[in-house]
Amino acid sequence: MQDAYELLTTREREILQLLAEGASNKDVANILNLSPTTVICHRQHIFQKLNLHSLADLILYAVRKGVISSQRSGAAPG
Q1: pTM (2 decimals)?
Q2: Which fold has domain 4-65?
Q3: Which of 49, 56, 65 minimizes the C-alpha distance to 11?
């Protein structure tokens, strides 16, 4: 069975990483020089392809997949 991550486009993977690191839709749009609407569209595709239902699910998926480390997920130390 194919890993769902393999279904993501390169752009969707970039957006997944930025969102998981704590960037807002607007932040992602500015970083990647996209419109916020385009980011939202990509975000919806990511959620559908990976069968995720919340930003928390996305962050957990990214940590488990090794897209981000648990140290970079924006969680405050302590």
Answers
A1: 0.84
A2: Arc Repressor Mutant, subunit A (1.10.10)
A3: 49
| pLDDT one-digit tens code per residue, 67-77 | 998 764 454 44
- Single-letter residue type at 52: L
For residues 46-74, b (16+ Cβ closer than 10 Å) or e, as one string?
bbebbebeeeeebbebbbeeebbeeeeee
Could you tell me the residue ranges of all domains in the chain?
Answer: 4-65
pLDDT digits (tens, 9 = 90+) for 9-59: 999 999 999 999 999 999 999 999 999 999 999 999 999 999 999 999 999
